[in-house]
Structure formats: structure tokens, C-alpha cells
Write a structure and sequence with these properties.
globular
Length: 190
């Protein structure tokens, strides 16, 4: 149970639905509730397909590309550190999406926001360390929470607000940097 909580927290930090909430809300605030919910569904569904595809095929892809888990752990650690630093310093994760429509917005939110390189590399490494079942369950929990946040974006954004989201994202960015450092330490034997 402790491992599930740890992994769910880790993937919540990586998927960062609160930062994505801001992008989702701003990109869809002028749309009807039906359109917003449709985009929320497609964004989370696409993120799920990418996540579970990576989770299932990940280590096989390493073999195809003639690399191993430690090399990927180092690459993933570097990506996590860079992503965390970007979030901590307050750089936007995407360009302005308010001019986009439907599927384009869903695609950008699905990747790179929800399932970017950091999530994909973490999925491969963490699956290697913890196994498929518990990682799949943790990711499923985070995706359901993400869908609920997007489905209630108007209410959630008004309650959480932009400033609180930024503070939480900064903290989550620091956690992301720490996980990246941990990936590097394990791969390098420190």
C-alpha cells in the first residue's frame, strides 16, 4: 500500500494535472460545457494510450534501440531535472492554446503536458523497479483524478486559482527535480 501511495504521488507530480488545469481552462473557457468535457475526455484518453503503451512496450523498445535500463534511467533523470527546473522557474510548458480547437487542444494537453518525455521515461524505469501491476494502478488513479479535474475545470480553477496553482506547481517542480536526481544516483551507483 505504501508503494502505491508513493507511486501515485510520483505520477501525480509528473502528470501535474494542476499545471495542465490552467492550460486546459484558459484554452477552453469560451467553449460550451459539452465541448470542454469532450476535450477533457480525449486529452486524458490519449494520455492513457501513450502511458499504457509506454508501460507495456517500454523495455522492449530499449532492446530495439540497443540501450539498457541504466542508460535510460540517466536520460530520464536528466529530463526530469530539466522539466522540474523549468516548472520551478515558472516557464510556461506550452504556447498560448486559446486559439486552438478541439482535437488540437486535446493533443497538446495529452502530450507533451500530461505524457511528455519525463512521464514516458519514468514509466519505463519505475516499471522495471516496481512491476507492471502497481505502476499501472498508480497511473490509472492519476489519470482518473486528472479527468475529474478537467471535467470540473471551471469550478476547480475558480477554487484553486492561478496563484495557488503556481505555488503548487513550483513545489511539484522541486519534487520532480529530486526524483530526477534519484534516477541519476541509482544509475551511477551513488
Amino acid at each position: 500500500m505504501l508503494e502505491l501511495i508513493k507511486l501515485t504521488t510520483f505520477f501525480f507530480v509528473l502528470f501535474d494535472p494542476l499545471a495542465s488545469l490552467t492550460v486546459f481552462y484558459l484554452a477552453t473557457k469560451r467553449m460550451s460545457v459539452y465541448e470542454r468535457n469532450k476535450i477533457a475526455f480525449f486529452a486524458v484518453a490519449a494520455a492513457a494510450i501513450l502511458s499504457f503503451g509506454t508501460l507495456i512496450l517500454g523495455e522492449n523498445l530499449l532492446t530495439i534501440f540497443n540501450t539498457d535500463i541504466d542508460n535510460f534511467r540517466i536520460a530520464g533523470g536528466i529530463i526530469l531535472i530539466l522539466l522540474g527546473i523549468r516548472v520551478v522557474l515558472g516557464y510556461p510548458l506550452t504556447n498560448d492554446l486559446s486559439k486552438g480547437r478541439g482535437q488540437a487542444i486535446a493533443s497538446i494537453i495529452a502530450t507533451p503536458l500530461l505524457t511528455g518525455p519525463a512521464v514516458m521515461s519514468a514509466l519505463i524505469v519505475v516499471r522495471h523497479d516496481y512491476g507492471l501491476s502497481i505502476v499501472a494502478l498508480a497511473v490509472s488513479i492519476v489519470l482518473v483524478i486528472t479527468w475529474l479535474v478537467f471535467h470540473n475545470a471551471h469550478f476547480a480553477y475558480e477554487k484553486i486559482g492561478g496563484k495557488i496553482t503556481q505555488v503548487l506547481s513550483t513545489f511539484l517542480g522541486l519534487v520532480t527535480v529530486a526524483w530526477g536526481v534519484n534516477f541519476l544516483r541509482v544509475a551511477l551507483g551513488f
